[in-house]
Predict the structure.
Amino acid sequence: MISQLTIHHLRNLQQVKLDLAQCNVLYGANGSGKTSVLEALFLLSRGKSFRHHQPKLYISHQQPHTIIHANFADDSAMAIQKKQDASTNLRLCGQTVYTQSPLTQRLPTLLIDPSSMDILETGSAARRQLIDWMAFHVKQGFHSQWLAYQRLLKQRNTLLKRYSNINALTATIRQELAAWDKGLAAHAALITHYRKQVFNAWLPEFYALIEQLLPQYAHYIHLRFLPGYDIDQPLEQILQQRLAQDCQMGYTRIGCHRADIQILWQQVADNMQVKQSKLQDEKVQTDSFEQPIGLEEAGMGSNQCGASNDSIKHIKEQAVNVLSRGEKKLLITALRLSQLPVLSQSALEQPMLDPSATNQATVNQSLDPLFISNTLQSSISPQDQAGLYKRQLEADIVPIVMLDDITAELDDKAVAVLLSTLSKIPCQLFITSLNIEIAQQISPYWQNYRLFHVKQGKVLAQK
């Protein structure tokens, strides 16, 4: 848990030093700097802002850099310096490190803000990051496999853009593509294996949280994992079959980089029976290839005419088409908060940082913003690196949950349910609100919370 947070020159926060508790509440007017405190935490953990990717847009005016520093309750510390030219310096446990991933491992962060509402309606990338965030933290081999897959995918896409006509491919180029496709298939199989394991561990946690946050819809909301390709066929074979279309489009359309999490609304005639079989059904569906999402009706246990008395009628569509905006926010909250118990499950192996991932040339080829880091100006010896990994494994890692503008689109009852749920989850909490009245709702759940008033870039602790 972070005991002290220091922020220098981030937006209107010039010099801020906060002594923190398990629950921390920031209130103030719009534009006062509340969200910038959350942005600092996110930047420290992920190496990027959730608002703008260019540092010059969040570094304070006429300042050369921004620095965020955190001290933890176990006496460890970490810091990030972002400069105007986007170069980065990172420190962890008193040592300079090459990549963002060690800081991300040490400081898992979950952000729930108004912009996260788009996760249900935009492309698959944001939903895919939900499962990849968990796999990164709990599956030892996931990160290195993911990096290797992205490197090969980038090479393949570069070549596809160069040759829009398959007839222009020489025998040598075809051989090179075949080798890349074989490598992609090998990495995709392991990545999908890790994702499926994490997804199956995530499901019961999600359904349990939905029972608390949206009890009236608990029987209807349904998750499905789509691998992004037909796992019953070798991926290299699929890629070769689709090579002409990929050349024409200029990119690779099939693979684990197209994986998705579907959030479905399923109405059934026998809710109790479906509820009992839901978890077993989901584990089977993780082996399924992607199916179209839309209005779908199917009969189970019926003959061709659908005349059996044992039939159960299913109607499936995207949950986003059914829920109100406030209900969508609770659904998104359930999706994110249910990730936290997965991080502490003993059934999943504890993560170790992969020393090979500190190779800067490899990291620079990563495509996902979660793992992007920049070239650093100093190095770390193998001895110091080994000591750093050991201290990472021994660290008492507490996830950070950030709720921006908690009362927006939620009534008092929904806020109470959300706070009650959060109080039972092992995490450190940061909440922003427009008014101080939020403190009255928080006090029943956290007696020793810290309250901060944010005004024109100044953050003042309240008694």
